[in-house]
Amino acid sequence: MSRCSSGPKDWGEDYADTTSSGLGCGFNVDPSHRSSQPLAVIYVADLEAANNKVKKSGGQITKATFAFPGGRRFHFQDPAGNELAVWSDK
């Protein structure tokens, strides 16, 4: 597993993250779960409302909402073709 010098938090055998630099970053060593490019993840309090806003704004859901250690998230592609994710701890 990759380790950050700033003290990551492990979320299982294949993922760790850190926020001590002021910007969160994560490392995933399982190729079946990681995206091919860096993935910006946006935190929201209401995941369902964010999902609806993405769809109404022309975004395309690329990975339906799923649970993972620490919360739930979904992935989407914006109209410009960028892949992003939206996460909530609720």
Give a written overview of the molecule:
This protein is mainly beta. The chain folds into two domains: 1-34, no CATH class; 36-90, 2,3-Dihydroxybiphenyl 1,2-Dioxygenase, domain 1, CATH 3.10.180. Helix content is 11%, strand content 40%. It contains one helix and seven strands. A four-stranded mixed beta sheet has the order 4-7-6-5, covered by helices on one side. The longest helix has 10 residues, at 47-56. The radius of gyration is 14 Å and the shape is globular. The protein starts with 8 loop residues before the first strand and ends with a strand. Residues 1-5 have low confidence and may be disordered.
Q: What can be said about this structure in brief?
A:
The protein is mainly β and 90 residues long.
